[in-house]
Amino acid sequence: MIKKKPKVSVVIPCYNDKDYIEETLESVLKQTFKDFEIIIVDDGSNYETKEVLKKLNFKNVNILEQENRGLSNARNNGFKKAKGEYVLTIDSDDTFDKTFLEKAVFILDKEKKVSAISSYCNIFVEDYKIIKKHIPKGGNLNNFLFDNNSTSFALIRKSVWNNIGGYDEKMIYGFEDWEFWISLTKQGGEVYIIKEFLFNYRHKKRSMSKIAKTNYREKNLSYIYKKHKDIYKEHFEEAIDFIADLAIRHKRNEIKYKTSIDFKIGRIILFPIRFAKKIILK
């Protein structure tokens, strides 16, 4: 008897998330839609996380171990192992509503032009306190040229992932999901957003997305613009306006910082040290 392939494969990249991976897994197992397999990609986690993963004992949960190669590589390796027609990507510290797969599969089965599905998003901290509501628009290429209008959490047609060539593994400093959506919509695909808060994103003091926005935003934007220069040439004036607006915002933040009380106090504290340094160097 030939074993029937699951309709959905759930890919969960995991890196040192011992405190949250079981909660993420539980949200998958509670889904009202049951025709799925789970692939956890252990991306070179620490000993404590590996011990937690070893204790997971579910027949439809597979653990793929690898050296630490980054989020894009972990997702891609999960996709390669996936047997499902559709693949859900979710990070190992997030959760989602039990009805998401049922609703998303129904839409993908019905709407052939839709390539991926996400939803509105709750951003929460410890004790499940919601601190922000995120409402992405989804849509076509025009919706993704200058803004990431989806979350990384999404149910994606595996055939589309394959046609794109997967997530860009050169993007090790974040923004890889945004670039993926650009590549997807560039080929004519659409990202559909379910207008319900079905995804729960855990806000951490230190996270990859926060580090990427703080330290690597300009570097990532430069890479994306150069990789997809064909489409940004077509939208040249809009690209110039966006870059100019970004520079203005940076300047405003710089002025705001330099006029802040913290900055002024810092200058007062450092003045004696700088004065002494000048005398010593004379």
Structure, explained:
By secondary structure, the protein is an alpha/beta fold. It has 2 domains: about 10-205, Alpha-Beta Complex (Spore Coat Polysaccharide Biosynthesis Protein SpsA, Chain A); about 240-280. The chain has helices spanning about 20-30, 45-55, 70-80, 100-110, 160-165, 175-185, 210-215, 215-225, 230-235, 235-260, 260-280; strands at about 10-15, 35-45, 60-65, 85-90, 95, 115-125, 130-135, 155, 190-200. The longest helix is centred in the C-terminal third of the chain and has 23 residues, at about 235-260.
CATH class of the largest domain: Alpha Beta
Q: Kindly report the CATH topology of the largest domain.
A: Spore Coat Polysaccharide Biosynthesis Protein SpsA, Chain A
In one word, what is the shape? globular
Q: Helix- and strand-based class?
A: alpha/beta
CATH architectural category of the largest domain? Alpha-Beta Complex
Spans of 5+ residues with little confidence (pLDDT < 50)?
none
Major sheet description:
9 strands, mixed
Q: Percent range for helical residues?
A: 40-55%
Order of helices and strands: EHEHEHEEHEEEHHEHHHHH
Span from first to last CA? 88 Å
CATH superfamily of the largest domain: Spore Coat Polysaccharide Biosynthesis Protein SpsA, Chain A
Indicate the radius of gyration in whole angstroms.
22 Å
Count of helical segments?
A: 11
